Amino acid sequence: MGEAKRKREAVLNGPCPCASARAARDCCFVGQNWHRPATALGLAELPPASVIDRCYMKELNSCVGPISGEHLISVSVIEILQGDGGFSISGVPWLEAGEEKIMAPKSLRANCLCTKHNSALSPIDDAARYFFLSLKTYLESDTAAPRHALVSGHDLERWLLKTAKALAVSGNLARGREKLSGTFAQDDALIGMLDDPAAWPASAGVYCLMNTGDLMVNHARFQLVPWMNEQDEIVALQVSILGFIFVLLLEPLDIVTYPMLADAKYRPARITIAHPKSNSWLTLSWQDGQVHEALNVQFVQNVPQENSAA
Ligand SMILES: [Zn+2]
Ligand SMILES: [Zn+2]
C-alpha cells in the first residue's frame, strides 16, 4: 500500500471529526467528501400538548411546562468562550454603545421557551459547543499534528438564530441604550427556519466578514449587534466571537441594502487556521446545493484578558 493510501485509510478508520465516536468511513465521509447532515430537530412533529403563552413556539401547540428559565446564551458555549477569564458582552440595553462588561453570564436568563421546546433545541447547543471548543483550541495552540473538526453549518446558523431570538424576546437587544422591540422581519417564518435549514430564503445565512489571510485576534468576547430595517425590525445579526465577525442574514441578500456583504464570504466551507507548525481545519457542511469557498486565517494572537470593564 502506498503512503498516500495508507494515510487515507488511517483517516477513514479513525474517529469521525464530527465527534460522534464512530469511524469516519461509517459516519460523515461520504463519497469523496466530508458531510455532516444538519440535525433534525423535529419541532413540527412534536406531539400536541398545551399552549404556554410566554413560549415563543406556542403556535406549535406542543408546549410542556413550566417555562424553562433557560440561559440567554448556552452555558456550555459560555464556558468555552470565557476559559479561565471573564466573559464580556456588549449590545445590551443596560450598556452604552461600544461599552463592554465582563460578567457572570449564568445570571443572564430568558423565560421565553417552555421546558419541551427548550430541550428540543438542545442538539444545536451541542453543535455550537463543539464548534466553539474546536475553534478556540485551534486558535490558542499549535500542535505538530493537523487537527480537523466537522460541524453542520446549518446547526450553527440555527444556534445563532435561537440565541438572538432569546435575547430579543427577553428585551436584551439594544441600539445604544434604546431597547429594541425585538421583532424580527422574519418572525412568521422563524420557527420553520429553526426547524428546517431548507426553510431559509436563498442567500440568507451566515456571511463571514474576515478575509483569507487576515490576522486573527483571539478575543473572549461575544458581541451581538442587530441590523434593523426601516420598520425597526431585525433583519440580520452581526456577531463577533473569538475575533471572527459573522453576519447572520435572515432575508435574501440585496447588495444595495447591504454593500458591506458584497465581499463577505457566504457560508464558508472550511475555516483553516494556519500556525507555524501545522494547519487546523474546521469543516462546515452545507446542504443548500451550492459550492462554498474556504476561508484561511493566520498568525493567531491572543488578547490578554482585560479587567478594566468589570
Ligand atoms: Zn461523523
Ligand atoms: Zn413551548
Question: Can you characterise this structure?
Answer:
The structure is a single chain. The chain contains six helices and 16 strands. It has 310 residues and is an alpha/beta fold. It has one domain (45-302). The strands form four sheets. A seven-stranded mixed beta sheet has the order 4-3-10-11-12-8-13. Strands 5-15-14-16-9 form a five-stranded mixed beta sheet. α2 (75-82) packs parallel to α4 (122-140) and α4 packs across α5. The model is unreliable at 305-310 (pLDDT under 50). Bound molecules: zinc ion (2 copies). One zinc ion binds next to α3.
Give a short summary of the structure.
This protein has 310 residues and is an alpha/beta fold.
Strand order of the largest sheet: 4-3-10-11-12-8-13
What small molecules are bound in this structure? zinc ion
Spans of 5+ residues with little confidence (pLDDT < 50)? 305-310
| Secondary-structure element pattern, one letter each | HEEHEEHHEHEEHEEEEEEEEE
Helix content: 10-25%
What is the strand content?
Answer: 15-25%
Computed Rg: 20 Å
Largest sheet: 7 strands, mixed
DSSP strand tally:
16
Structural class assignment: alpha/beta
Choose one word for the global shape. Answer: globular
Counted by DSSP, the helix tally is 6
> Would you tell me the overall average pLDDT?
84
Give the count of structural domains: 1
